[in-house]
Amino acid sequence: MSTAGFETQDKFPSRITPYVVACWIFAAFGGLMFGYDIGISGGVTAMDDFLIRFFPAVHERKLLAKENNYCKYDDQNLQLFTSSLYLAALFASFAASKVCSIFGRKPTILVASVFFLSGAASSAAAENLWMLIVGRILLGFGVGFGNEAVPLFLSEIAPVEHRGAVNILFQFFVTIGIFIANLVNYGTSKLHPHGWRVSLGLAGVPAFVLFIGSLVISETPTSLIERGNEMAGKMTLKKIRGVDNVDAEFDQIKEASDKARLVQHPFKNLLKRSSVPPVVIAICLQVFQQFTGINAIMFYAPVLFQTVGFKDDASLLSAVITGIVNVASTVVSIYAVDKLGRRKLLLQACVQMLICQAAIGGILLAYLPTTGSLTKVQAIFVVVLVCLFVMSFAWSWGPLGWLIPSETFPQETRTAGFALAVSSNMLCTFIIAQAFLSMLCHMRAFIFFFFGLWIVVMGLFVVFLLPETKGVPIDLMEERVWKQHSVWKRFMD
């Protein structure tokens, strides 16, 4: 049930200064790196030069005169190239939680950038499959550290009235990364025989910007105060707020930090009854975010468009179009999330995504046989439906899947709780990345109905179990949200 009637706007004095905006943007480059990794793999796996070198059996199937539309890319090693990154990120997120708590958000982002740089270099220089997988694993460590630290950093450094918009910068930069990756793939697909090396190696550019940014940004006041650096925390709070009158906000952070320091084992605290609401919501949002089917589309957009009848260049160009839609629609979320709230965006998107998944599945079921292709009009209609699907995801489940867990855990379990959210996301992303091409082969058009059923479950979850968190100070969630919710108040002391 909604708690919209209980929300409040606790505004502490603040000004948006050039420095704090620079901190937001530099940190958000962690999202751009994540998005580039998501977008680049699908285009690379569609390149013939890449397949000939690492997956010749897949290339042979692709060249068959009467190729199976749904099964030509079904190869576990090919899927492992994409999914290994997310398996590594799953395990790295728990180490990142410890680094985040002990050393702070800023050093964790620095570590992420070093992993990203190493992974980009290893991937671009790969001579065999194991070198390629090692590169993906290093990138996965970067994703684990970056996705743990960046959303927390953005939520903790943002003024309460702009917290939603600032946190969504992470997802906005993810969409920019995907879009850039699609553009790069479109260009490098013509660079024979090493276009794939350029695509993978260019990941080093945003990684280097993130490295420089990690040296420029401030540590969050919350992290400094929690680790006993109260004077530095207050000075940093003044710096990022652009005002000297920060006593009220400082006192609130200090009170939460004093409670957090009493907790010796934050992961054990997640087992407490009062931790059930944020834990359930954090995990469910990550599962639902992936089982909308979005990453099946974003990972394999070029492959998917080839499946419905586009040629190589046209399929890459179609992926570029979906990338543009993804970026533009995330801007809608930045504008709307602190005005309309989280629940309205999520519910509207469920309706739009369900219609799109059902329509895509219906078209493929009716008109795309095992061999042959859709007509040009039918294929274009599928691209339009994919764009409408990506549009609704980009202003809802994409950014809010990261925002809501970052703002709902109390400070004493925040890094541990968010690590649980990140690892859940990476596990589900790994499952989708490893299984999608095989699922497409065996389920064919019915795979879109499979994701549609998940969207129905998601909508019911939002209606009955997801409270509204718009305008609620991050350290007052228990009093203002959980204790006011018809279901979750039963878990509060």
TrEMBL record:
PROSITE patterns: MFS (PS50850), SUGAR_TRANSPORT_1 (PS00216), SUGAR_TRANSPORT_2 (PS00217). It comes from the Eukaryota. Keywords: Membrane, Sugar transport, Symport, Transmembrane, Transmembrane helix, Transport. SUPFAM superfamilies: MFS general substrate transporter. Pfam families: Sugar_tr. The chain crosses the membrane at residues 16-36, 78-96, 108-126, 166-184, 196-217, 279-303, 315-337, 349-368, 380-404, 416-437, 443-466. PANTHER family: OS07G0206600 PROTEIN, SOLUTE CARRIER FAMILY 2, FACILITATED GLUCOSE TRANSPORTER. This is Sugar transport protein 8. The lineage of its organism: Eukaryota, Viridiplantae, Streptophyta, Embryophyta, Tracheophyta. The gene is STP8.
